[in-house]
Design goal:
By secondary structure, the protein is an alpha/beta fold. The chain is built from twelve helices and nine strands. It holds the Pfam family DctP.
Length: about 325
């Protein structure tokens, strides 16, 4: 029912003017949604993208930004892209494996060695081939942004996989993440983000995993005592566009968007790295205990995660790992 209501709300926003919303000066308005707070690097970068696009188009294109799930939870926004009720969305990989199963490859634990390794892969052949797979789903894959390196937060200290045994840990609705945490001994509970803070405060779940910027911008220090820097998964944000909306743009408008995204992507990643470093210190200042941990036992416990998934091509995994050299 919540999904239907959210999609209806998105439809009402979009259908207010089709094709696209227009002013008296025939400005094309692109409604862009995302699931993070306004302090997150993705929102900040969308504001930057809107500035660049407006300047390059001389006001012909305008991006209106709807943060914090105003257009629905992430899966609902992706469905809205397919229906044409959402023009643009920036979402995590969590719900996307259901649309493009091969995307599960980039969700494998400890796959990327560094941010530069991730950028090289995602901006290269592997990443572009994955974006191209959205076409069959009525979606245009435009760019890879950064959600960040995912780490654990919990009510009790986590030093090794043994400390996760039986722990009720929220994950995204992502089968690769769920499988990995089962291998680590946790009891993963897939849950939409909008329910997480309340579930942590009420004891429905004990822990969750997310990048530093998500932990800080959502004030999770209020309901979690520890942050353990496992950095177990590099989490991208994907910039996606409705095929229906894309087809209504002129070739010149599409070019402006694509060129602007190159600059905005670099800005988004730089902002993400800067905020992660700043906010780790701020989390500690808020009273959260931030700890480094030996990741070797976590790596060993999840070494065979990929083998359980037919949608993950071992050759692609090998290619990604080779790119670290």
């Amino acid at each position: 029912m919540n999904r239907i209501i959210a999609l209806a709300a998105a439809a009402a926003l979009s259908l207010a003017a089709v094709p696209f919303a227009s002013s008296a000066f025939a400005t094309t308005v692109i409604k862009a949604g995302h699931g993070t707070q306004t302090a997150h690097p993705t929102h900040i970068a969308l504001e930057k993208l809107a500035e660049i696009v407006a300047a390059k188009s001389k006001g012909d294109l305008k991006i209106e930004i709807y943060p914090d799930r105003q257009l629905g939870e992430e899966r609902e926004m992706v469905e809205g892209l397919q229906l044409g009720t959402v023009d643009m969305a920036v979402v995590s990989t969590g719900p996307l494996v259901a649309f493009v199963p091969a995307l599960g490859t980039v969700d494998l634990p400890f796959l990327f060695k560094s941010s530069d390794h991730a950028y090289k892969v995602l901006d290269g052949e592997v990443g572009q081939e994955l974006l191209a797979k959205f076409k069959d789903r009525g979606i245009v894959g435009l760019a890879w942004w950064e959600n960040g390196w995912r780490s654990l937060t919990s009510k009790k200290e986590v030093k090794s996989p043994a400390d996760l045994k039986g722990m009720k840990l929220r994950t995204m609705q992502n089968p690769v993440h769920i499988a990995a945490f089962k291998e680590l001994g946790a009891s993963p509970i897939p849950m939409v983000w909008g329910e997480v803070f309340t579930s942590l405060s009420q004891g429905v779940i004990d822990a969750q995993e997310n990048p530093v910027t998500i932990v800080y911008s959502n004030s999770l220090w209020e309901v979690q005592k520890y942050m353990t820097l496992t950095r177990h998964v590099y989490g991208p944000h994907l910039v996606l566009f409705s095929q229906q909306a894309w087809d209504r743009l002129t070739p010149a408008q599409r070019t402006i968007l694509e060129e602007s995204l190159v600059e905005a992507t670099a800005y988004q990643r730089q902002t993400s790295a800067r905020l992660e470093a700043e906010q780790l210190k701020l989390l500690a200042a808020k009273g959260m205990i931030v700890e480094q941990v030996d990741i070797t036992p976590f790596q060993e416990a999840t070494a065979n995660t990929a083998s359980a998934f037919k949608n993950i091509d071992p050759a692609v995994v090998a290619k990604i790992k080779a790119a670290a050299n």
